[in-house]
Amino acid sequence: MSSPRILCLGIGNMGAALAQTLLRSSSPTTNLTIWNRTPSRPLVQSLVDAGAKFEPNLVTAIAHADIILICLLDYPAIYTALHPVPSLASKTIINLTNGTPRQATDAQTWMTARGAELYLDGAVMVTPQLVGTPHAFLLFSGATEARFQAAMASVVAPLGTALYTGEDVTSAAASDLAALAAMYGMFAGAFVGMGLLQKQLARSGSKGDAKIAPAVEKVVVPLLAALVPYVGQIATAVDEEAWEDNMGNPLGMQLAGVRNILQACKEEGVDGGGLDALASLMQRVMVERGGDGGVAEVVRLVVE
Ligand code: FVH
């Protein structure tokens, strides 16, 4: 059986990494075409040098492809790019563009209305440098797992471990955004902490050569690493509505700690706004239930 003709639509940092990995792992007969809005992007030339075919006309590129792997900045960019394409009849579309659950549903409707045979919505869960390495994993949702395995699993296997999240096409986007929300929440707190460390260095009269990185590496990073499994335990408490289970860390104690951070921010002139919303939610749980339960109940308020 001949190899499927793959079109990588979008050669930004991530699209280029996906295309490079597919090229590296493919047989000499594999037919990999690339398209990018800006043909002069250096990543495009690197891929052509590595054996990809660049097709500047997207209508032609799609007509000659069986599988279209989309990785653009956002969903509006997808519609802008695909607007002139008259038909997607019999095409398999794998969309790895970051977006919302609703955007995933709308894209499925839009693509199938134009004849697409199979639409999978997904996400890449690592940086471009890690694509194709043992650390890489990707999410896919939509169609059925059997269809995903039959049609796509071998094609996307070189990119990383594929996790099929469910037939509901929104499930990959929901999981992707959940992970990113946790990551950005971690950044929000880390930036406040780095501000406090900088103030401490300035207050102690350290010269310009004093850095915050040693404290972050020796104290902040190990604490975060040790607490990662705690997030899973909190999720289990949420599923079980086990609001009274404080896992040895009662909400009252935790809120006192968060208030100390915010107080230090006021005293030192650091913007602690990144933690204000969390403190308010914890305070609401305190008012409703007292401080003996767990922090998991904050999630109940988030969805109300
Ligand atoms: N890079 C990363 O670390 C993360 C890892 C997790 C997944 N994300 C998501 O991947 C999508 C693409 O991200 P990217 O890193 O490739 O982003 P850029 O390098 O900025 O490339 C963007 C591509 O989108 C094209 N594009 C933008 N607007 C339009 C448009 N209106 N019409 C057509 N194409 C458009 C852009 O083309 P050009 O600027 O080169 O002409 C690039 O091909 C993204 O969803 C991340 O959240 C990456």
TrEMBL record:
Task: Kindly indicate where the leader peptide sits in this chain.
Answer: 1-19
Q: Does the keyword Signal apply?
A: yes
Matching InterPro entries: 6PGD_dom2, 6PGDH_NADP-bd, HIBADH-related_NP60_sf, NAD(P)-bd_dom_sf, RedAm-like_C
Q: Which GO terms describe its cellular component?
A: chromatin
Q: In which organism is this protein found? A: Eremomyces bilateralis CBS 781.70
Q: Where is the 6-phosphogluconate dehydrogenase NADP-binding domain?
A: 6-117
Query: Is-annotated flag, keyword Nucleotide-binding?
Result: no
Q: What is the name listed in the Swiss-Prot or TrEMBL entry for this protein? A: 6-phosphogluconate dehydrogenase NADP-binding domain-containing protein
Q: Which UniProt keywords apply?
A: Signal
- NADPH-dependent reductive aminase-like C-terminal domain location is 168-302
Q: From the UniProt record, give one GO term of the biological process aspect.
A: transcription elongation-coupled chromatin remodeling
User: What is the top-level taxon of the source organism?
Assistant: Eukaryota
